[in-house]
Amino acid sequence: MALSISWKKNDTPEELHPLLTTLAQEYPVGEDSGGEIAVCFDRSESPDTLKVTRNGDDALICYGRANQALRALGALMAGLPEDGAETVERCPFISFGIMLDCSRNAVMKVEHLKKWLRRLALFGYDMVMLYTEDTYELPGEEYFGYLRGRYTADELKEIDRYAASLGIEMRGCIQTLGHLNQILKWPAYGKIKDTGSVLMAGEEASYDLITKMIERFAKCFTSRRLHLGMDETHDLGRGRYMDKNGHERGFDIFNKHLSRVVKICKDRGIEPMIWSDMYFRMGSKTGDYYDRDSKIPADVATKIPAEAQLVYWDYYHEEADFYREWIRRHRALGFEPAVASGVWTWRKLWYQHEQTRRCAPPCLDACMQEGVAEVFFTMWGDDGAFCEFDSALAGLCYTAEYGFGGGEPDDETLEKRFNAICGAGYRETLLPDRALNVDTPGAPLLWDDPLLGIFFNEIMAKEETGKLEKAMESLSDLAQCTARDAAEYGTADMGHARQLALTLKLKIALRLKLVEAYDAGDKKRLAEVRDEADEVVAEIENLGKTFRRQWLRRNKPHGLEVIQIRLAGQAERHRELQRRIDEYIEGGAACISELEERSKQPKGAGGGYRALATASSIL
Description:
- 48% of the residues lie in helices and 12% in strands.
- It is an alpha/beta fold.
- It has 3 domains: 5-90, N-acetyl-beta-d-glucosaminidase (Double Stranded RNA Binding Domain), CATH 3.30.160; 95-427, TIM Barrel, CATH 3.20.20; 439-613, N-acetyl-b-d-glucoasminidase (Four Helix Bundle (Hemerythrin (Met), subunit A), Up-down Bundle).
- An 8-stranded parallel β-barrel has the order 7-8-9-10-11-12-13-14, surrounded by 6 helices. It has a 6-stranded mixed β-sheet with strand order 2-1-3-5-4-6, covered by helices on one side.
- A hairpin with a 2-residue loop joins strand 4 (49-55) and strand 5.
- Helix 12 packs parallel to helix 13.
- The two termini are 51 Å apart.
């Protein structure tokens, strides 16, 4: 329960008036409201320093930047500052933000995004990027974001206006070279297609389209900062570009293209930034971003447009020294990098806190030690954005606490702040992480085919069957936890987490019993498996309902069909399993051929849905 806050115009700098008014749409923050705590605000002498002093029902907030003032407000609402004491935080970052993936099918509704913005402001974030490859409208481009839930110009302007009312800078985050497979699949863009996902560099029509992209965000967003993307263009210049121009060094194609795009930005008063990985990948013999032997030729480095800020992304390393080395490598190229860490959501059914805790803190430590000014946290949606993204608010609470506190926060502080800001339990929101991400490889088990068992066979080949027993125990514990209705809970849908646990537990148990009974030639037990498959189908269908509930609460409807098709396929494949068992028991089939073909050697199976649903071609 959040404590109520009262403030007076005369005791509050004018820059904070609209921020406090916007927060009052949801939180007990009111002008002359007679709240439990009366707050005065003052500017701090140091821009990176935040001080909060509470004396009984009165509090004084001395802040360096507006985001600090709202973070302090969140702390007061949570009852964190002790009476009679002064708390001090120092956040050295001039920009502390997030990047939310809106391109892997989940496009967050404007109203739900506003809720996120209010929470982000109270955590202390001051910058937000929505990663939009094609999920925004472009004039004259009918197929750009077609049936993908694209944002209209009015929606982008409304998001920008609302973010500004909370002291948050909205930056455009697009793609201007690679990761454009969703538009390049349409014949209308055949002329500017190099490969399946990469634009044709050097083609004037490509720059006509890019100009429209840049102008869209120049007109819709107040910020002059724009992220141009340009990462992971592994096959740059190796498709139609090579047919037309012959072989050219990737570095040269990349730099020439970037120079053209930077000029488009410069002519429109836009300050561009790009992901830096391709420079390091092209300098590596193995194409690895983090290859210590990577060499970027001097003639390449000198031709990187000085106006393009490089963004170093790294969600994987657990040692601060590695991050420090790569920050220095960016500086050696002549650029002061922004750094992107990750709050782990991609290919996960639920926010993965353990992975975030291993990688985000050393990244933040390195950024503090190296004096990096800009940091943000990505939340990707690879393979269909099936994560319950609201669960990631717990991760954003954690990374903000670490960033402002300069070290590992205690759970009690996190619990109080998260409860006051999000209306939910911090520990409870993290509870599904162990069952769905740590003890259980959740998503691969969900997508694994019940007859083919591609992922299951991999576990068996690695002789890791014991992990499945542990997984079922962990899933059982989660399923027994109290699950409140999503609307009552306030943040992540715990009822959906419970349904995930029920479905996965039954799916694992059925596959184990199926293989054991088949290998033993026990047709009586196979008949039991056939009957038990009905319960699995029922729980898969229930999962479809809870997935739909949490998706539509947060996102536009586009993209929901992808997961519904997958779950419907899972249900039908379990019915097919029943048919195959019946045919085998009744003598119509000499064997169940899918169960006969099980490799004894691991094949490296894993990854996303396409790799696990079938070994055949998915058109």
